[in-house]
């Protein structure tokens, strides 16, 4: 399919470009993936090497999710009430495993507007679909709504009085300890701080980025959110 390394590099760049709004983690992966190919005269050997690195990274990601979930499960009890904001795979797997381990746990999932393409009702709906798609979630089926309730974004302050802590995902964690995540994260963090409710971020280490935004205006919005009055992602200062 590829005749030169330049074609390979261009294709990798196009594939990863869609993630550039979330920080430089994927750019660093691009550099790591292709660094040895520049000095090689055997393109096919370089392609096999890059494929192996991708497979190794996928295995690392799969195992790291389980490690992170094992770290957070001891903090969750049968009586825990947890507010969740986001729609990542790691959050979905955490919810499914928590319900499996703790029958009485209750999750309040933020509606997550503004909506994105494919999910007109917000990220909360997307998260529940991902929970059901996990091996643990498939066993829950119709029981999921017994443990999970989607709450409107405007009701976060009211629900905050009833939860033990907040968990949210992240598009990236900035160099100075800030958070880039979907809109609504800042108001949740402010309300949680005011109510003295612990707020935790659950994300993979490849999302740690060498960027220093000072406000949401410094972020590049995803393509399906460009030009909108309300941005799809926002910055939460440290």
Automatic annotation (TrEMBL):
Cellular component GO terms held in the UniProt record: eukaryotic translation initiation factor 2B complex
GO MF term (any one): translation initiation factor activity
InterPro entries: eIF2B_alpha/beta/delta, IF-2B-related, IF_2B-like_C, NagB/RpiA_transferase-like
Keywords: Initiation factor, Protein biosynthesis
Keyword Transcription: no
Entry-linked PANTHER family: TRANSLATION INITIATION FACTOR EIF-2B SUBUNIT ALPHA
Family, similarity comment: Belongs to the eIF-2B alpha/beta/delta subunits family.
Name of the molecule in the record: Putative translation initiation factor alpha subunit
Organism field: Leishmania gerbilli
